[in-house]
Amino acid sequence: METMKRTIDCGALRKSDAGNTVILNGWVHRKRNHGGIFFINLRDRYGVTQVTVDTEANTGLAAICDELRNEYCIAVEGTVNTRPDDMVNMSMATGEVELFASNIVILNKSEVLPFQIDEESKANEDLRLKYRYLDLRSGAMQERIKLRSETAFAVREWMTSNGFYEIETPTFIKSTPEGARDFLVPSRLYPGKFYALPQSPQLYKQILMVSGFDKYFQIARCYRDEDSRGDRQPEFTQIDIEMSFVSRDDVLTMTEGLMSHVFKKVKGINLPKSFRRLSWEDAMELYGSDKPDLRFDMKLNDFSHFVEASSFQAFKEALSAGGVVKALVVKGKADYSRKQIEELESHAKIYKAKGMAWMKVANNGEGTALTLEGGASKFFADNTSQVISGLEAELGDLILMVADSKRHVANVSLGAVRSKLGRDLGLTCPKDNSDPPKFEFVWIIDFPMFEYDEDEKKWGAAHHLFTLPQEKYHETMESDPGSVKGDLYDLVLNGYELASGSIRIHDSAMQKRVFKIAGIDPAEAEKKFGFLTEAFKYGAPPHGGIAPGLDRLVMIMAGVTSLKDVIAFPKNSFAVSPMDDCPSEVDPKQLDELKIVIKKEQ
Questions:
Q1: Residue 546's closest CA among 173, 168, 253?
Q2: Which of 82, 133, 388, 495 is spaced 20 to 30 A from 454 at the CA atom?
Q3: What is the 3-state secondary structure (H, E, C) of 223-261?
Q4: At what angle are helices 550-558 and 248-267 packed, to 10 degrees?
C-alpha cells in the first residue's frame, strides 16, 4: 500500500496542479466506456475527480478497467491534465482538470450494491439503515455528518472562549424516573441493583454548581426509554449548559451568543443580536403552539366577540360553557375546495376539535363591497362587515373557525391547522433557490410551573421538579398552584423546540415545597433526590441552565426533517438498528451471572 498511498485527495486538484504526478485513493462512483477511453469518477470524503484511462495507449490497464464496478476501492496514479474549455464541468470543484491514469490498483472489490449510492439515496429507510455504511458514503450524508462535526466544534470553540469548562458527568447513574422511563443497566457485582442511563445530566450539573465550577458545558449523550413516536431517538445528544449567579436574561443572552457564533462559523449566516420573546400564554393564543413556526405570520384571532350578534348556536354554547371561538384567516385561499377544507378539519379533529367551520370572503356584486359566502356564512348575515373588518380579511381569503368549551383545545387544534397550512402552502420554504433558508428563533417564557393531572387528581411539575418558581408567586404557591409561573424558557427554531432550560431551585426548603405540591412525600423525595437536597445545605449558589439539542440543531441547519439524517448510526422508528440487529438476545450465561430471569409474555 505504501507505493500507492494517496498524495492528494479527490477534491483538491485544480488547474494549478496541471502537469503534476499524483496518486488518488477512493471509490469508483461512476464508470463510462467510450470505446477504448474509460472515464472513471473517483470519489472520497473530499470530493470527486474524473480519471481518464486510454487503454489503447496503455493496454495493461484494459483488463482492470473492464473489471471495475461501482464502489470498488482503488488507487490511481497519473498526471493532472487541464480539460478543454468546452469540456469543463462547472458542477465539480475539480471540473477544470482530469487525472490521466498511468497505473490502477484494486485495493478491494465490492459486491453488487443493495441500492445505488447517489447524492441523495432513494432507498427506503430500513434498507438504508441496514446498509448504513453504504448510505453514509452518499454525498448528502457526508455533508450532514461534516456539518455535525463543524457544529460541535463551533460549540466547543465558543463555550471554552467564554470561560466554560467542559466536564463529563456519569453515564451510570441512580434511577430517578421522571417523564420517560429510564434505560436500566443491571449490576453483576450487586445482584438485584441497577444503574440507569441518564435522561439528562440535570442533577449532576446542578451539583457542579454547588461544587463552585460556575460555568459548565458538555456535549452529552442522553437516553430515554420511550414508546415509538414520531422522529424521536432512544439515544440523543444535547449541548448541556449550567451557570452560577445568573438570572434568566443571562442564560438567554449567553445562548443567543452561542447560536450566533455557530451559525456564522458553520453557515456564514448572521443572526439577530437578540431573539424575539413570547410568553407561553401569548404563544398559545396567537399560534396555538408553544413551539410556533414564525417563518410565516397567520396568527389565530379571538372570534368570540363576533358570536353574540350571530345565530350560530353551536358557537354560543361553547362560549356559555366558558370556552372560546378562534379563527384563522388564510390569505388568498377562497379557492380551496370542500375536500381540501375537510382535510384540514380532519387534522383539527386529531387534536380534539369537535369540528371546524369555514367561510369565504367574496365580492357581493355591488361595487367593491365584500361579503361572506359558503359554510357558516349564513349565521353571520347580520354582522358580515364587522367580521370582515375585525379580522382584517380581504377579497379571496378563507376563514377557518374552531369553537370549544376548553380554550386549550380550540387553540391547539387550530394551531395544528396553521402548521399544516404553513407546510402545504410552502410558507416555510424560500420562494426560490436563490433565496437563503429562513431561520426564525423565538424564546417562549413564563411557562406554567404546575399542571393538574385529571386522572391522578393531583398537581405535578409541568417541566421538571427543580425549576425555581418566579418570585412573585412564592407566597401563593400552595394555595393556587395553577397560577404559578416557573422561571422556565424554551428556545424555538422554525417550529421545533431547540432548547429548554430554567433557573433552578438552590434552596432545600423551596425544593421541599415544590416536592410537596407535586405530591412527592419526604421519604420518596429523600430516596430519589436526597443527594441533591443534601448538597443544597452547603452554600448552593443561585444557578440556571439550558440544553440545546445538537441532533435537532444540525437537522434544522441541514434543511432536513428527520433526525436519522444527521446521526451516523441511528435507530429506526421502532428503536431498532437493522444494521447490527440491536436490541438482541444475550447468552443465558450472562443472565445467570446477573441473576436475571426473563419473564416470557403470555
A1: 253
A2: 495
A3: ECECCCCCCCCCEEEEEEEEEECCCHHHHHHHHHHHHHH
A4: 40
Cell 426560490 -> residue: 432
What would the pLDDT profile of 509-559 be if each residue is shown by its tens digit? 899 899 999 888 888 888 888 888 889 999 999 999 999 999 999 999 999
Q: How far apart are CA 421 and CA 73, in angstroms?
A: 47
Which distant-in-sequence residues (6+ apart) come within 8 Å of 525 by Cβ?
512, 515, 533
List the beta strands (DSSP E) in 321-417: 324-330, 357-363, 370-373, 398-404
Nearest-angstrom CA–CA distance, 529 and 471 = 23
Calpha distance 470→171 (Å, rounded): 32
- Residues 6 or more apart whose CB falls under 8 angstroms from that of 76 comprise 23, 24, 25, 40, 42, 51, 99, 101, 103, 104
Enumerate residues 6+ apart whose C-beta is below 8 A from 35. none
Is the Cα dihedral 92, 96, 101, 102 positive or negative?
Answer: negative
pTM (predicted TM-score): 0.92
Give the tens place of pLDDT for each residue, 362-375.
Answer: 987 765 689 999 99
